[in-house]
């Protein structure tokens, strides 16, 4: 072998220039092929000494140090290699950037310089030699086992391609982070040596004994679940964690790191056992501050967050310094600085906090007349910001004045005192000048679909949103004094400042508004519209003007609209307004300007572009590919996706209509969603407009970049600490080996969210920013606390004071089984019962019956074997409820099946077994008993068996105060009730009840103004009870009632008498008998209730409601008359206070037609939480 030593030529195969190694993109995936992937070590390049080989280098020939070998841990910068995915090219690709070497001794100034590819080292005499041995050598002391190479056979000629195939095979297994190749001459051929760096995937991390946050600890360790780890990184975890703990106050922390193998050879469990030890704590905190400054600080210095007993945590101390600095600056010490120093003396640690507050800056104002000092100080916001430079504060004050119409306001700041003074005054000198009003807007060259009024409304919507206004305006006291005050000696009166956003000019707000107007024209097909700029036309006041008035100086110049176009007919910008027409006040030159201005806003729409053609590029799709699934074959046969006709139908753009940029972008998004629903998760769609020369027609072209169809290779659940993962996975529509469809992902999110234990659910691809054909799906859930206890107190005019206590468990056994127990008690004070008859009845009740209750216990099973859309709930209910005419007690057991295919769609089938007791109030004389029998209203104890089917479709944005969307709901209930207790004896002619109860509601919410929040709410409710046998009665708890916040606000809760109540009662009583309201029970078998409400936002906190409620009840279906003139109407208004739990509503409804024979009240006041 000695004679072969000089000719032993180890060389590098499979690397790019300057020692870059081939690294797979992800475990268990084929490495990405990058022709121009490079790596460099500029620092080592200047220090390379070929005569002194690195002792740790693998493959170095000691006998010939000039030969180049491989060092996987520290590549030699002089090595040249090849990316194993691609054959090295001697000439760069056309789009390749070739980096030129810098002159000797010159440093490169380009941080992103890319070295040029060089040809691989020639194999020389090794080229073509048969490979007699293939060795795979693992670097490090972990995971040494390596599978043999099968893609290269013994006896095969040695070549660069053979080395690449060997490395590519090893990297494709996912068990190695890097690979390099060497070759050496053997007596009978060549030996190929593959040096690999093993890696493993971290399946899970077990962290025990951690005294610090888990995520922060793992971030410091540089590891994460599903991340990669090598022997080198494994060895560095312990030192990094110890350093992290030492920095946070645990200097004696001990860390033990273990990598535990699993059944999967490519995965490990990383166990980190941390013994934090005794923390280093602050023994004493000492403030170092000058005596004069200490007096100004006072107790403020005690706000420093950390003190004696706190852990010596350097990052926390640095944060405390920053927080204290911000606090001092917000408290007036604009130049404050805070720092700290730790001094360890034996076992004691002394924290010295150096406070350098500087002078306390006190704002002062001079010259302000329209606004007081408090308003200006609030405008500065000194207690909320750390931006305290005088120039910044001056800009804030000027912006404050300009937003309120003082366009000519001037503000200057001067800082008094000396730097060493403890208090210095920052004086703002204000020259307010007169308030400026916009009295007119002109739009030269305006043509097309929008009028000047339309543009004015669009602009004013921005002004109302950005600028301050007043809900209530105070009258001018001078006018009040002239009308009602004394005629002499009244003195002067200050004129209040009127804030009218529509008459205020703020350049920044107008710029935003004009951008919106420009977009509005683009959306209507005016793609070349020229909008703006705004020019201010303002008269100069004559020097002969009397005090407080302005006589405009005559101006010879005039401005006229030119409305010029270029050779293609496209609009050109208007020339600027002459300077003589724009006055700028200058007190030094005695130039005063008029307080009224006219804004000139050129609007030249230009030609309107019509859409005459659609074109598509890049729409290839998968229908021509082999191996399609049955679903894909069906889709291709029936829908013919990716064709121009299919894309045109999805785009849904009508030819011959104006080309709207908004509609074009919406069409682009629809095409993109269609592609993503077919599995093209990384598809991109661009829209381009190809106009005709005169811009009157245009073709819309959609350029599709499909990329690979993404196939799901696995589904991983993250965040499910307490919940069974299989329960979550059963609700996922995505499947391994199938395309990732966006629609299925969103629907799966909704299904998982209906389980209940999660506050948020998201489904996305792993590494969503990296396009790749095969991807894992990550389901990330955030669990709520499993148990909760919720005491509550409430009040309403219908129920009085209400107390509630609720306990719930959202996730029993990790199966999302929910348990809810709720106790609710309410008490209505007698003075709150306005109806005289109801008050008499209420006074006769004992205390136990006056206390209403609703106690429930329910168990919800989200998965009962009928699929993820069906759940089962079992509820027990105990209710005591007092109506105006009767008291009702119910004990019921209610199982219910719920089907929820979409978040907005719900259907339910419920079965109810009830023990009911109904007692009518007052004395039950023979007359009233006969009325109740004839009106089919039984009383007593019954057992009821009921089955109910409900369905709803709810698209409201919020159920408590909807501003958009709609609600459709309906239900039918079948009831069989039996008086098995013979509780009423022979007093009733129908001991059994059999009927159907139909209910329905339609509600819609229409936003009338997008920015202001003005909303019109409409609702129509109805109900009907159909007896199934002739002698069937309807128990009062199943009747329909009107009155109260939920129906007719002109009446008290459930107090409306049926329209035919008097007539039906008189038919029963003998002729001449006296009929009182006590004899007429409330409630009916037919009900209709239309409602309308206009919701007007006043401020962020307050809202005004104007409503019109209508409706009526009938006892007999034959008496129903839906003539609008026969409905009962309630007109009223209300004030709503927005709160986190919903709006608090105070409504008063006026009864437009009180019925004297029924002693109806003129109106009713209501309080409630939430709106219909």
From TrEMBL:
Transmembrane domains' residue ranges: none
Q: Which residues form the POTRA domain?
A: 710-784
Coiled-coil parts of chain: none
- A GO CC annotation given for this chain: outer membrane
- Keyword Transmembrane set for record: yes
The protein's matches in Pfam families, at most eight in alphabetical order, are given as: Omp85, POTRA
Q: Which UniProt keywords apply?
A: Membrane, Signal, Transmembrane, Transmembrane beta strand
Spans of biased composition, class Low complexity? 55-86
* Major location (coarse): membrane
Q: Does the keyword Secreted apply?
A: no
Location within or outside the cell: Membrane
Read off the PANTHER family from this record: SORTING AND ASSEMBLY MACHINERY COMPONENT 50 HOMOLOG, SORTING AND ASSEMBLY MACHINERY SAMM50 PROTEIN FAMILY MEMBER
Instruction: State what protein this is by name.
Output: POTRA domain-containing protein
- This protein's species is Sorangium cellulosum (Polyangium cellulosum)
